[in-house]
Amino acid sequence: MKPSPEKTSDEATADVESGTPMLPRDPEHFSNGESSMGELRRLLVGSEQVSDVLPEAVSKSSQKNSQLSEATLPIVEKNIRESVLRNPRILADALFPVIGPAIRKAISAALSSMVQSFNQTLEHSVSPKGLKWRFEAFRTGRSFGEVVMLKTLQYRVEQVFLIHRKTGLLLEHVALDPKDTQDADMVSAMLTAISDFAHDSFKTDEDATLDSFKISGLNVWIEGSPDAILAAAIRGNPPLELRETFSLALEKIQYSFDGEFDSYDGESDTFMAARPVLEECLQFQAAEASEKTGRFSPAHLIIGFLGVLLLALVVYFGWDYWRWSGLLETVRNEPGYTLTDYQRGWVKHRVSGLRDPLAGKSSELLSRNRYDDGDVVFSWREYQDSNPQFVLERARKTLNPPPGVKLVFDKGVLTVEGTASDDWMADAKRFGPVITGINEVVISENGLNDLIARIESRKVLFKCGTTKISGDPALDGVSDDLVLLSEYGPFELEVLGFADRTGTPDVNEAISNKRAEIMGSELRKRLGDKAVLDKIKITEMGSKTTADECRVAFKVIRQKK
Question: Which class is domain 449-558?
Fold first, then answer.
C-alpha cells in the first residue's frame, strides 16, 4: 500500500480544531524537539476529546464484564467515607426521602401487628376456649398471646406475581394450585391498571404505590422495590407479619437480579431462577375447627350473668369487710370505749362493749367508716374510763371549782391551784378521791406563784432613744403567760416603762410613758379574747426613774375578792 502524503502543520491544526485529531505518521516528525512532544500530548489527553470517548468506553466496559465496577468500587467507597467525615449532612439529605418513608412504614406495620395481636388475645381471654388455651400455654411453656395467634389465624397465599415496575409486564408467577390459575399475564395487567388508576385518580406522591385491596374474601397485598412489584393473592385473614416475608423475598430478588432488571428487554426467561424465592411466599395457616355456636348462646349468657353476679358479690363483700375492719379498729382506739364482743352478719352487724358517758357519740364512729345508723346495732354498758381527759372532766363537774382555782390531774393526783374558801377546799379534799381515777387531792398555790414570778421577771427591750420594740421574743412569752393567769381569777397587770440614763429627765419621763402605752396597746391587741381581758386589767405606768436598759417591765397585782 502506498503511504499517504505527509500533512503540513497547518493541516494538522485544522483537523484538531474540527474535532478530528490526526496524528502524523512520519516518525521523523517526533524528532523536532519539545514542541512536537507537547503537541502530541495535547492531542492525546485533550479534555474535549476525552469527554467524547469516556462515557461510551465506560458503558461498553460495564456491559462486557464487571472489571470496571470492581476496579472503581474502592475509590467510590473511599469517596463516600471522606464525604461523610467531611460533611455528614450531605449524605443524610440525599438519603432522607428514602429513609423517612421506610421508617414510618416499618413502625406502622409493627404497631398494627401489635394491636391485632392484642385484640385477639383480649377477645379470647375470658371465654371457655380461652381457658383451655391458657392451660395449653402453661403446659407447652408458650405465652398465651402466642397460643391465641396459633389457634385463631387462618389464611392461605394462593398466588404470587413478580411484575416489572416500569413496563408492568409479568416476570414470574407461582401458584399453590396451578389448576385454579387464570391467565397470569392478564392478572398482571389488571394489577398494573388498578395501581395506575389509583395513582392517577388521587393526589399522591410520584413514588406512591398501591399497598393492598380486597375482593370478597380475597386479599391482594402489594410490595414494591425500585425495579419490581410483588403481588400476593391471599385468602382468609392473614397476619401482618406476612408482609415482612414478602418484603424480604422482594429484597432478595432485587439484589440477585439487579443486572437483569437493568438489561430487561421483555424476555422473562431469565427470572425463572426467582421461582424458589417466590414459592417460599406460598404459606398457609389453618385454625382449629370451632363449634358452630353463637356468641350470645344461652350457655354464654348464663355464664356471663353468673360471672357478673359473682364479681359483684366479691366486690361488695370485700368492700364491706374493709369497712367492718375499720369500724372495729376505730372502736378499739377511741377514748371512752372498750370492745368486748362483735358479730358480723349478712345484712346487719352487732357490736357490744363498755362506753364512758363523756365519750363521743356512736353515730360518729359509723360515719367515719361509711356506715349508716341502721347498719350496725350497738349494745353499750356504762362505765367510767380512767383516761386523764375524762377524769379531769368528771372532777370539774363534781367539784365545780370557783373562779381563780385551776385543777391539774397527773398520775392519779388532782392538784388544786389558786385560792378559794376554806369550805370548798375541805370538800375538794373529801370528795375528790371518790371520783374514778383520782387517788389523792393536793391543795397548792405554787403554780400560781410561779406563774406570777415568771411574768414579773420578763422584760421587753426597746431601741434606745426611740419607742420602737427591738423584736425581743419576751413579748410572746408575756402574752402566753397572761392567758394562763386568767384561769386563776381576776388580776391587774401594771406595765412599767423605763428609759436609760441618757437624756434629760423630762425626755426620759416622756419616753417611759410612751413605751408603757405602746406595750399596753400591743398586749390588748394580742389578748383580743374578751374572757382574758375581763379577768386581767392592764394599766400603763411610765417611770420617772432611769435604768441601765431601755425596757418595759411588768407587775401582777391580785385583786381582792
Answer: alpha beta
Q: What is the pTM of this model?
A: 0.32
| Sign of the C-alpha dihedral computed for residues 17, 22, 23 and 26 taken in this order | negative
Q: How many whole angstroms separate alpha carbon 472 and alpha carbon 454?
A: 16
pLDDT < 70 stretches in the chain: 1-54, 62-63, 65-66, 92-128, 145-146, 148-153, 179-184, 198-209, 216-217, 286-299, 419, 422, 445-446, 472, 560-561
Tell me the three cell numbers of residue 141: 411453656
Spatial separation of the C-alpha atoms in residues 57 and 126, rounded to whole Å: 72
Write the CATH number of the domain with boundaries 388-444.
Answer: 3.30.1340
> Do residues 538 and 490 lie in contact, with contact meaning Cβ atoms separated by under 8 Å?
no
- C-alpha 303/C-alpha 313 separation (Å) is 15
All cell numbers assigned to 94 = 440525599
**C-alpha–C-alpha distance, residues 269 and 267, integer Å:** 6
CA-CA-CA-CA dihedral for 81, 85, 87, 89, to nearest 10: 70
- Length, in residues, of the chain: 561
CA distances to 102, 106, 438 from 93, in Å: 15, 20, 93
What is the grid cell recorded at 453?
Answer: 414570778
Cα 68 from Cα 65, distance rounded (Å): 8
d(CA 285, CA 242): 11
CA dist., res. 107 & res. 111, Å (int) = 6
Helix axes 474-485, 446-457, angle to 10 degrees: 150
Provide the CATH topology of domain 153-285: Beta-Lactamase (3.30.450)
Map grid coordinates 341502721 to a residue.
374
Q: Which three cell numbers stand for residue 549?
A: 436598759
Q: How far apart are CA 340 and CA 337, in angstroms?
A: 10
